Amino acid sequence: MSELKVSALDDSTLNPILAPMNALGHEHILFCNDSATGLKAIIAVHNTVLGPALGGTRMWHYQNEQEALTDVLRLSRGMTYKNAISQLNLGGGKAVIIGDSKSMKSEALFRRFGRFVNTLAGSYITAEDVGISPEDMVHVSKETKHVVGLPGKSGDPSPITALGVYVGMKAAAKYQFGSDSLAGKKIAVQGIGHVGGYLVDFLVKEGAHVTITDLNQQALQAIQNIHGVDVVAPDAIYDVDMDIYAPCALGATVNDQTLAKLKCSVIAGAANNQLQDEKKHGLQLMEKGIVYAPDFAINAGGVINCFSEVEGLSLEWSKQKAQEIYSTIASILTRANQEQIPSYQVANKLAEERILSKGSLNI
Question: Which of 55, 66, 114, 321 sits 20 to 30 Å CA-CA off 149?
């Protein structure tokens, strides 16, 4: 019987699970299933060189398990880079729960998920993400101590995430337009959930002209009633006359189809994995002269907030740390110009350099 050596894995010999796991350098994946509660989840731990893997849990109605696996693998890798570039002593991980967050939530489901998290013995620390609330994390915390973002502690990370995106957007504007003032700038915000809603608050307060879209019509109406912003249909957001595009929903919205429509000079938003194909679309943005603030660098406020809970730090510390995203984005864009490479490559390099200084990372 032939032996497959793990140290020299060949993607051609691997199944659809091991191949992408090997390609992205993940340490391990836990598949969770519980028929009694209806729980189907995947926990992916990408890298723990800098510390335990911290990353939120997303609940989404994926079309199939393969789609969920692809998402959790990309998201967990992004968390490794995000924590590294933010100078946090944390590795990267992520979890996804397959299901409808509007109809399938229950205490039993989240407690069962918490037990699965607990089996990882602290190598993964969870928190809330899309479709999950701090209250859901309370149920998870009944079964494991490896959870953050709880009410009464660091709580909802969305305000800090929005703050980081806001200051990172200002840094990108300074690079592109010569001033970091957003007053009078035309900004299209795609997705006005927790983070997007807080971001709109910052932008309107500074005097930006904001256009928003979302699938949630009630949320759109609420934001419009408060701020008087323009509202467009989801598919129409790419055709809006804008200076800055702020993707704050799901990923892959910068792709072949949207790049043919987008009229922006800057892309700076809260969504993860904004580039559908990192290499292809990152290069196209550079060639088009569109300044791109790499997603895992600009949206790090949330994990900064969660890290403060892990370390027992204050909300004021989180806010000050999130303000540093301004200088991080400015440094990335300056270095990208100096080296004449896409900004995402610079962000990746900075993260990898920190991890390699502490250990090794299979990229």
Answer: 66
pLDDT score recorded for residue 362: 52
Do 116 and 169 fall within a single domain? no
Distance CA(288)–CA(265), nearest Å, equals 9
Q: Is the Cβ–Cβ distance between 200 and 189 less than 8 Å?
A: yes
CA distance to 130, 174, 204, 334, per residue, from 167 (Å): 22, 11, 14, 16
Encode pLDDT of 191-212 as tens digits: 998 899 999 999 999 999 999 9
Catalytic residue among 40, 82, 94, 321: 94
Instruction: Count how many domains the chain has.
Output: 2
Q: Which domain holds residue 73?
A: 11-141
Closest to 102 in 3D by CA, of 41, 56, 61, 138: 61
Q: Are residues 291 and 163 in the same domain?
A: yes
| Same domain for 173 and 260 | yes
Dump pLDDT digits (tens) for 109-137.
Answer: 999 999 999 999 999 999 988 899 989 99
CATH number (domain holding residue 120) = 3.40.50.10860
94: annotated active-site residue: yes
Q: What is the pLDDT of residue 14?
A: 57
